[in-house]
Specification:
It is built from 17 helices and 17 strands. It is an alpha+beta fold. It has a domain of 177 residues. Helix 2 crosses helix 3 and helix 3 crosses helix 8.
Length: 431
């Protein structure tokens, strides 16, 4: 598979019981601490090529540009670790014995929802939105069976909070009336050549395998779209309605997808169709691992081998964690369920139900702590993030964004355009 520029954006939630009375917002304070640290690069950018900023009341991290699903996992997890470090600093310096909690999820108990978005740099030549509705929407509405994070909403356990809150097929909105396919188009690159596919029908995930599968499958399908290899994609009669039906059901036997032909199939069948199309383009050992994992997960869902699959599917493991809490903790059932559900999403390894389960060997991993540690400080070496970092190390920076850097040197003020997200040198261009 060839390289494909991709990244993610996550709005994290920070909560401190005394934050109102102590007169500070931990989201803002975390950003101030980050800007004063040696991880700060310039503007809103940090040394690993990612961007950290305040957005609609949240601390948000957009990963550096990456070219493959494995690097995406590494740099997304690095963003988690950076915020967790800032959380610990705030506790030590400002709150004493009062804990600050940091969550990576999509909803809060008060009903507020927030974003976890994917971005893919795709060819401008693909008809939008027509081809994406026809060839990509069937994937987005069925991948929730293995990419869902799980959550409790309106008293119900749902596979994917983002899918549950999606209201239409195509929309330009990101906060309300959201669509399976989002029309926002800010390419952050040469606009005549590339489009930024902004994906908002995805969840904030902690499980490395789930993140890998989310990006491997979507990357492969986008590459097949660019080469015209998806003409026979299953045509869905009511993709949003089917997604709403399936998102509230944990039993694979009850999942349904209605085709335009009148036939009813399972979302597993739709995913298997994509699996067969992707197999010929799988080349490297890492790609073969991701492909086999995808196949294994679909096989397991079909056979309902749920205990083993919980190692790779976040909604399933979260459900088991909630059931274990109900068996071991006292109190009103609804309160125990909600507490366990939210504690699962904490990013602090000393408090997170997810990380306790990972440390206990109950959850599979696909990257190493060493890779994540390096990615906290360093950008990917094969994307524009590396070039931006190099420019910032060489010059005084007046302004910086994804695709432009304004520098000052002995020659005065210079605007340097960075239209190619694959370029690692100013003269380089991706063919």
């Amino acid at each position: 598979m060839r390289k494909l520029i991709q990244g993610t954006e996550h709005e994290y939630t920070l909560y401190c019981r005394k934050m109102g009375g102590m007169g500070f917002d931990p989201h803002v304070l975390a950003l101030e601490l980050l800007r004063d640290s040696d991880l700060h690069l310039a503007g809103e950018f940090i040394t690993n090529g990612s961007r950290a900023y305040y957005d609609v009341g949240h601390f948000e991290v957009s990963t550096a540009e990456t070219t493959n699903p494995y690097d995406l996992v590494v740099w997304e997890k690095a963003g988690e670790k950076i915020l967790d470090w800032l959380r610990k600093v705030m506790e030590e310096k400002y709150t004493g014995n009062t804990k600050i909690h940091a969550f990576k999820n999509n909803t809060s108990p008060d009903g507020t929802s927030y974003g976890s978005h994917e971005n893919y740099c795709v060819s401008r030549s693909l008809p939008f939105p027509q081809q994406f509705v026809r060839e990509l929407v069937p994937h987005f509405t069925t991948r929730i069976i293995y990419t869902g994070a799980g959550d409790l909403i309106d008293g119900n356990y749902v596979l994917s909070p983002s899918a549950y809150l999606t209201s239409t097929l195509v929309s330009g909105e990101t906060m309300h009336d959201t669509g399976v396919l989002n029309t926002r188009d800010e390419p952050h690159a040469e606009g005549r050549r590339w489009r930024r596919l902004h994906v908002i029908v995805g969840d904030a995930l902690l499980n490395e395998t789930a993140i890998l599968l989310r990006h491997f499958t979507t990357t492969a399908i986008l590459l097949l779209m660019e080469t015209g290899k998806l003409d026979g994609v299953p045509k869905l009669a009511s993709p949003v309605d089917d997604m709403w039906h399936n998102v509230e059901i944990r039993n694979p036997d009850r999942w349904k997808v209605h085709l335009e032909s009148g036939k009813t199939v399972s979302p597993i069948d739709v995913q298997r169709w994509y699996l067969e199309q992707v197999e010929p383009i799988v080349e490297t050992e890492r790609e073969r691992f991701a492909f086999k994992t995808w196949e294994h997960v679909l096989d397991g869902l079909e056979k309902k081998s749920s205990k083993g699959l919980a190692r790779q599917i976040e909604w399933l493991d979260r459900y088991y964690a909630i059931q274990e809490a109900l068996d071991t903790k006292g109190g009103p059932e609804a309160d125990v369920e909600m507490m366990a559900c939210k504690q699962y999403s904490e990013i602090g390894e000393d408090r997170s139900v997810f990380y306790r389960r990972q440390q206990a060997g109950l959850i599979d991993r696909v990257v190493t702590d060493g890779e994540i540690l390096r990615a906290i400080r360093e950008p990917p070496g094969d994307t524009r993030a590396f070039l931006r970092r190099n420019l910032c190390d060489r010059f005084n920076i007046d302004k910086i964004d994804w695709s432009v850097v304004v520098v000052t040197d002995d020659g005065g003020r210079r605007r340097i355009e960075l239209p190619d997200p694959y370029a690692t040198e100013l003269e380089a261009s991706h063919g």
